[in-house]
Design goal:
This protein has 430 residues and is α/β, with parallel strands linked by helices. It has 2 domains: 3-14 and 239-426, UDP-n-acetylglucosamine1-carboxyvinyl-transferase, Chain (Alpha-beta prism); 25-236, UDP-n-acetylglucosamine1-carboxyvinyl-transferase, Chain, CATH 3.65.10. It contains 14 helices and 24 strands. It has helices spanning 22-31, 48-60, 93-96, 106-113, 132-140, 172-183, 198-209, 241-253, 269-277, 316-323, 343-349, 380-392, 403-408, 412-418; strands at residues 3-7, 13-17, 39-44, 63-71, 74-82, 90-91, 115-119, 144-148, 151-155, 164-166, 188-192, 213-215, 221-225, 233-236, 257-261, 281-284, 288-292, 303-304, 329-333, 353-357, 361-365, 374-376, 396-400, 422-426. The strands form 6 sheets. A 4-stranded mixed β-sheet has the order 22-23-1-24. A 4-stranded mixed β-sheet has the order 2-15-17-16. Helix 4 (106-113) runs parallel beside helix 6 (172-183) and helix 10 (316-323) packs parallel to helix 12. Bound molecules: uridine-diphosphate-N-acetylglucosamine (UD1).
């Protein structure tokens, strides 16, 4: 298993191009199952999560071609997906266990082919991650759902029916799944308490481009008028707000200055306001954001993770890394996932002073400096928090289990090296 070696203490300066968003690309790729015509997606990031999803979908019969293109001044992949010959309607355990977001096949396959079998994904490092909202919503749309031998078996012999659905939680995954399902349902579906993340707007734009009728974009009430079929379109994946936020903290924690090219400031208002309160300058430009922490004193600040536009849970670990070297104390409250402090013991091994209270709150008392250590994390964002701590720490940090980072950060070492980090991947046989 590969490792990442970092020699900390270098100030990072320069430009980083922000890639397409993993969490937007995953449902967009699955939306291509809704039509027999080709769907072309630009700005798809090269990440192992996308590779996993592509292998599941090509196993099902999706035709996939790709080529390299320049998109918004940086090189990226364009994929064309065509679902004109889907033969397999079962997502087996071996695929799903590697990537939970394979649940995005549920809505499209059930809507178009009236049947789907899907291995239950099971738990995950950051929490139990149930899919009850996805399943109960599909039942409200007329699907018959049975759980057998670890699989969800869903049937809708007469097709899905429009329904009035009120989500108990504003789930991102359920909103995407039910949106896709409703585009081909008979009649009108109304989703209340829908999630409002930018990735959902990106999905709505693709679906509308394919001929879907969706109203309420950007709000928590979505209305979808089912249509008979969807058609070909070309669409771009939005820039990754979590990647942009992560590199913003790389600038802050090394007291450097990084311009995040293509970052969308409007998607990062809470994190950027928090950075400003912590003493970092944030300059929002039309096609980039400059994060300047040169000669600044970083001050502790509290965060509370919440549904969008609240503070993103996917940036909690990275902000905590910054808080470890801030002046004074910071309170972190995690309201979305029940087990998302796994980076804490690792940060403490590097000299951080953090106390966890219950499973939702942590107090971080800033220390003068961190020191390098061998560390590992059990999820993607926590792993990046350890990279950040390594960039700021004195001496050498080895981050193990790099496969987590490869799931969500495209060209990580290349991007950090380009702004002056001393970072390298140590290849090791699995
Ligand atoms: C997505 C993101 C993930 C992010 C999360 C919250 C992807 C691939 N992943 O995950 O990075 O951390 O949004 O912003 O886009 N819940 C239920 N029942 C369900 C579904 C969800 O109780 O059927 C709960 C979850 O346990 C969690 C909350 O709802 O407490 C939010 O989960 P959800 O928004 O669904 O997260 P994901 O879509 O899995």
């Amino acid at each position: 298993m590969d490792k990442i070696k970092i020699i900390g203490g270098k100030q990072l300066n320069g430009k980083i191009y922000i890639s397409g968003a993993k969490n937007a690309a995953l449902p967009l790729v699955c939306a291509s199952l809704l039509s027999k015509e080709p769907v072309c997606l630009k700005n798809v990031p090269e990440l192992s999560d996308i590779t996993f999803l592509n292998s599941l979908l090509s196993y099902m019969g999706l035709k996939i071609t790709s080529n390299d293109e320049i998109f918004n001044h940086h090189s990226s992949k364009t994929y064309t997906y065509q679902a004109d010959d889907i033969k397999e309607l079962t997502a087996p355990y071996d695929f799903v266990r590697k990537m939970r977001a394979s649940y995005y096949v549920l809505g499209p396959l059930l809507a178009r082919f009236h049947h789907v079998e899907f291995s239950l994904p099971g738990g995950c490092a950051i929490g139990a991650r149930p899919i009850d909202i996805h399943l109960s919503s599909l039942e409200q749309m007329g699907a018959k759902i049975e759980i057998k031998n670890g699989y969800v078996i869903a049937d809708a012999p007469k097709g899905l029916q429009g329904a009035h659905i009120i989500f108990s939680k504003a789930s991102v995954g359920a909103t995407c799944n039910i949106l896709m399902a409703a585009t081909l349902a008979n009649g009108i579906t109304k989703i209340e308490n829908a999630a409002k993340e930018p990735e959902i707007e990106n999905l709505i734009d693709l679906l509308i481009g394919m001929g879907a009728k969706i109203f309420g974009r950007g709000t928590s009430i979505l209305t979808i008028e089912g249509v008979k079929e969807l058609h070909s379109t070309t669409h771009a994946v939005i820039e990754d707000r979590i990647e942009a936020g992560s590199y913003a903290i790389a600038a802050a924690i090394t007291k450097g200055r990084i311009e995040l090219i293509n970052a969308k400031a409007e998607h990062l208002q809470q994190p950027f306001r928090t950075l400003e309160k912590m003493g970092v300058e944030v300059l929002e430009k039309e096609n980039s954001v400059i994060i300047d922490a040169r000669n600044k004193t970083i001050i502790g600040e509290d965060i509370y993770t919440d549904y969008y536009p609240g503070f993103p849970t996917d940036l909690q670990a990275q902000f905590m890394a910054l808080m470890t070297i801030a002046e004074g104390a910071s309170l972190v409250t995690e309201s979305i996932w029940e087990n998302r402090f796994m980076h804490v013991p690792e940060l403490c091994r590097m000299g951080a002073n953090i106390n966890i209270h219950g499973h939702a709150s942590a107090i971080v008392r800033g220390v003068k400096k961190l020191s390098g250590a061998p560390v590992m994390a059990t999820d993607l964002r926590a792993s990046f928090a350890l990279v950040l701590a390594g960039l700021a720490a004195e001496g050498e940090t080895i981050v193990n289990r790099v496969y987590h980072l490869d799931r969500g950060y495209e060209k990580l070492e290349e991007k950090l090296k380009a702004v002056g980090a001393d970072i390298e991947r140590i290849k090791e046989p699995d």
